[in-house]
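Deliverable D2.4 — example input (structure tokens):
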């Protein structure tokens, strides 16, 4: 009888892929984790306990069949592992890199809760699909039957691309419209290369293009083409624009106070070799500057670690709660600290010191945590008389994002929104108040995770197939 390849968590310790030394990774924008070797991936996969109720799968937004593809990896059956992974996730190699596994699958691993250290699910997921690309298992696809129906997708981020993949596999004609010159949304311009190298996204976009998805880029809906024109051209429309409007601070219009997305986009464009005037002029370049980033989410972590790589003389994060109550990934905080970022917990900006038109410092108040709010998180309170000034040449506002007013921006009547400005859409299907119009991702949820946008895109694609009359059979074909 063959030896059981699994349940080795007692005898095999948890091990992550090697992380490049902090002094080396500060000098470039390459990904910080090296690849697992095949033997190491198999070894770490073999630690899975193959639970009867896999909490890792339950807490994954895509409900990926994690125990099965771990078992295939442990047995050296990598192609089957990839096929299982791909069956529920349009972009497993992307999720393996940027999902906050410590809050999702790995954070709910049974063996982690028993004290043995979680299975390194994200690293194995990344390894499986990177191997699939390397071996040529990932190829452009052709649907079994072409259909006459067409769907227009507004937004080439993860939600829109996931839906495009599913719809195209079912034979639907798909056109994706996007405001940027490259497809990928925040995966291209909002997430730095040290977390997600851009060729990883580009090869997926290229696969979709070779499979028949048409991309119309540099296209601003409401300016270059009207929403009504898109709706008139297609049998159904999917809105997947994401949320790009930055939350602002009062009196923050001085020179040197910039928005996180502007800062990250400029940096990512430079990595493509683009001409970026705001970067070259120093406006969106941290080199030689004292940098303060305001915020505690994953976008703030991206800004902090980008500023370090650009050559800032100091980089400080201001967050109004403590470390245990921050929304960003603890793994990202640890990486940032290793790279030289300083964290000022329980600190909130009161205002700015400005010399003429240029910021020279941030006025900060110490905070304490008071009673919990409606969500259960303790509310920060100002400590009177505990103010101080932090010098800053560049202040980056990473306070989160809000939806744009799409009905007004696009001149659309009847598209209902919530009191938060997000599009009102039916759960799971993404159906909006307009017939044949669907919406997914952050424009429905508010700022959220890439993995949730992928889930929404896949679910809504199935609903659109139903709407188009393709039925359950075509939806099943698209999911294969």
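Example output (designed residues):
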């Amino acid at each position: 009888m063959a030896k059981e390849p699994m349940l080795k968590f007692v005898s095999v310790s948890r091990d992550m892929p090697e992380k490049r030394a902090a002094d080396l990774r500060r000098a470039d924008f390459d990904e910080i984790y090296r690849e697992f070797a095949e033997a190491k991936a198999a070894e770490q996969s073999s630690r899975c306990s193959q639970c009867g109720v896999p909490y890792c799968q339950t807490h994954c937004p895509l409900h990926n069949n994690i125990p099965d593809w771990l078992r295939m990896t442990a047995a050296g059956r990598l192609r089957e592992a990839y096929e299982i992974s791909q069956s529920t996730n349009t972009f497993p190699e992307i999720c393996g890199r940027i999902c906050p596994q410590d809050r999702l699958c790995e954070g709910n691993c049974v063996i982690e809760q028993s004290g043995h250290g979680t299975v390194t699910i994200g690293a194995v997921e990344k390894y499986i699909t990177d191997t699939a690309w390397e071996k040529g298992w990932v190829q452009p696809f052709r649907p079994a039957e072409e259909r006459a129906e067409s769907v227009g997708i507004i937004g080439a981020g993860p939600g829109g691309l996931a839906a495009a993949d599913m719809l195209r596999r079912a034979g639907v004609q798909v056109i994706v419209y996007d405001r940027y010159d490259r497809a990928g949304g925040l995966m291209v311009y909002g997430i730095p290369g040290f977390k997600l190298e851009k060729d990883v996204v580009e090869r997926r976009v290229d696969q979709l293009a070779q499979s028949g998805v048409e991309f119309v880029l540099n296209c601003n809906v409401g300016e270059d083409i009207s929403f009504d024109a898109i709706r008139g051209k297609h049998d159904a429309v999917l809105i997947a624009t994401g949320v790009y409007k930055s939350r602002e601070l009062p009196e923050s219009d001085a020179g040197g106070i910039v928005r996180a997305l502007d800062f990250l986009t400029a940096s990512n464009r430079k990595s493509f070799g683009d001409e970026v005037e705001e970067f070259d002029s120093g406006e969106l370049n941290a080199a030689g500057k004292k940098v303060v980033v305001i915020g505690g989410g994953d976008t703030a972590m991206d800004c902090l670690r980008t500023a370090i790589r650009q050559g800032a003389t100091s980089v400080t994060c201001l967050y109004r709660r403590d470390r245990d109550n921050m929304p960003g990934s603890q793994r990202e905080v640890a990486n940032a600290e290793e790279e030289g970022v300083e964290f000022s917990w329980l600190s909130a900006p009161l205002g700015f010191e400005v010399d003429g038109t240029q910021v020279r410092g941030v006025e900060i108040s110490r905070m304490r945590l008071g009673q919990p709010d409606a969500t259960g998180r303790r509310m920060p309170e100002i400590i009177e008389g505990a103010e101080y000034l932090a010098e800053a040449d560049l202040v980056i506002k990473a306070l989160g994002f809000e939806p744009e007013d799409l009905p007004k921006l696009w001149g659309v009547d009847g598209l209902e929104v919530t009191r938060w400005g997000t599009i009102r859409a039916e759960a799971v299907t993404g159906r909006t108040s307009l017939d044949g119009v669907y919406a997914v991702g952050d424009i429905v949820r508010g700022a959220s995770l890439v993995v949730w946008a992928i889930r929404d895109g896949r679910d809504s694609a199935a609903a659109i197939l139903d709407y188009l009359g393709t039925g359950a059979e075509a939806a099943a074909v698209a999911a294969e």
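The domain at 150-243+403-479 is CATH 3.50.50.60 (FAD/NAD(P)-binding domain).
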